[in-house]
Amino acid sequence: MTGDAPRVMALYRQPSYSPNQHRANDTAILDAAVARLVARGWEVARASESDVLATTLPDSDLVLNMCQGPDASEKLLPLENSAVPIINRPSSVLSCHRHRLVTILAGRPVAFPRTAVISTTGRAALDGFGIDGRRVWVKRGDVHAERSEDVVTVERDGLRAAIDAFGARGISRVALQEHVPGPVLKFYGIADGRFFRYYGAEAGPSGPVPEVDEARLRALAFAAAAELRLDVFGGDVALPAPDQPTLIDLNDWPSFAPFRDDAAEHIAAYAHDYYTTRTSPRSPT
């Protein structure tokens, strides 16, 4: 990279952390955001999550970080103490891993169902999950889902077999989560509020949206993201009632596939503004 143009380093997610169609979509949203920064005069370099682990990255003025694995995220942690803005922070990415997410959100003013992270190798008590007749969600307890089997729902009498199935695949812990009745919404946002979109998970982006108190939904989504200091985020809420959105999952930098063009423009503008604010001289007092 040469010249006086600001330099952005785009860090792409390891394919194993982008299951099914998300693999192409995750690459596409980062490509689209970078293209819009280039249109604003930025120079760009790209690296994979494997590159983060294997090499020393070149200097840059801004990092767009989609890495999701623990090893790459931990290696990137020193950037948080440097002058280089990084979106998303690696500490925030690590906080999204389920075993940390459950701990962070417990007791916080965020509507979140009872969730417990347990070992798949022991015989921990199941603490009453499923005794009310509701199904129980069993989710991979470290990173986000890498395949469909990483999130399943079972009756109480199927809990132990489901946990054992995760253990047989070498997964050391799972999250047990109470089922929240009602339709599910998927949401996408950027921390300063310039972008927020959602749709019904069952009907999809083009279908009807379940009735929801949008102000409460928005407040919940942004409060959860603020707890983890996420800049670019998405997640899922269940709606036992329109005015009772309940967070059931939170993700660092989703694919934004239904809104890619609009999201990419806003992500690039947010990143550019973030960089400009961080580097602008202070006004005289």
Account of the protein in words:
The structure is a single chain. This protein is α/β, with parallel strands linked by helices. The chain has three domains: 7-88 and 259-279, Rossmann fold; 114-178, 2-Layer Sandwich (Dna Ligase, domain 1); 184-252, no CATH class. It contains eight helices and twelve strands. It has helices spanning 22-39, 49-54, 70-76, 90-96, 98-105, 159-168, 214-228, 260-279; strands at residues 7-12, 43-48, 62-65, 86-87, 115-119, 136-140, 151-154, 173-178, 184-190, 196-200, 232-238, 246-252. The chain has a four-stranded parallel β-sheet. Strands 5-8-6-7 form a four-stranded antiparallel β-sheet, sandwiched between helices. The chain has a four-stranded antiparallel β-sheet with strand order 10-9-11-12. A hairpin with a 5-residue loop joins β9 (184-190) and β10. The protein is globular and about 65 Å long.
Beginning-to-end CA distance, first to last residue: 36 Å
How many runs of DSSP E, i.e. beta strands?
12
CATH fold label of the largest domain: Rossmann fold
Helix content: 25-40%
CATH architecture of the largest domain: 3-Layer(aba) Sandwich
Integer-rounded radius of gyration: 20 Å
The main β sheet shows up as: 4 strands, parallel
Principal-axis shape equals globular
Looking across the biggest beta sheet, what order are the strands in?
2-1-3-4
* CATH class wording of the largest domain: Alpha Beta
What's the structural domain tally?
3
Query: pLDDT below 50 for ≥5 consecutive residues: which ranges?
Result: 281-285
H/E order of the elements?
Answer: EHEHEHEHHEEEHEEEHEEH
- The fraction of residues assigned to DSSP E strands is 15-25%
Mean pLDDT: 90
